Amino acid sequence: MVKLIGYKKKKTAIFISGAGSNLKSLIKFSKKKKSPISINFIVSDNPKAKGLMLAKKNKIKKKVFNFKKIHKIENQILAVLKKHEIELICLAGFMKILSKNFITKFKGIILNIHPSLLPKYKGLNTHKRALNNNEKYSGCTVHFVNSKLDSGRIILQKKVKISKNETKDSLAKKVLVQEHRLYPKAIIKVFNL
Ligand code: GAR
Q1: What is the number of domains present in the chain?
Q2: Domain CATH number, residue 121
Q3: How confident is the model over 107-149, as pLDDT tens digits?
Q4: Domain annotation covers residue 3
Q5: What is the pLDDT of residues 150-178, one digit of tens each?
Q6: Is 176 in the pocket of ligand 1 (CB under 6 A)?
Q7: Whole domain around residue 153: which residue ranges?
Q8: Is 4 a domain residue?
Q9: How many whole angstroms from 93 Cα to the centroid of ligand 1?
Q10: With contact defined as beta carbons under 8 Å apart, do 176 and 19 qualify?
């Protein structure tokens, strides 16, 4: 898809809101010699996001922005990303919607991971909705971000079987394990290594 020229790793910012388990798996992945990315910045909308602790531990710069005032701050975020020469944004459990303006103005690539088999179950409460509809399978999707929620071009998906006594929590856990594998694979696919 997007050819990586030479061996220079793409400078990447990860956007998070909570636990940061996808962030953790991406940090691990980025440290591999063959990984096409380095993680240079972490953005959070939530000052209490547990994932922020990974920034200090891994010596990655971080900044919390108040996304309630998104129109006022998006130029600030873009400026910070530019300063750090960020070429790729990975949304990883980021629960805010980026504005069309932000998406257009950011000149790099933006990816997202979503806990459903898109185009099914865009938005929130994906596991609960999949169970309520008696789905036999759920899963996760990595896709390019465009200005429509969870609607950009799909890069990779992983299916997960829903068991008989599945709860939304057990399904979330099962899907999360697959998310941690899928995001690195999707990044490799994007950079066509
Ligand atoms: C993940 O399941 C991710 O796919 C989902 O939130 C969880 C965050 O986990 N994201 C969304 O629902 C985005 N709309 P993490 O913070 O441990 O990576």
Answers
A1: 1
A2: 3.40.50.170
A3: 999 999 999 999 999 999 999 999 999 999 999 999 999 999 9
A4: no
A5: 999 999 999 999 999 999 999 999 999 99
A6: yes
A7: 10-190
A8: no
A9: 3
A10: no
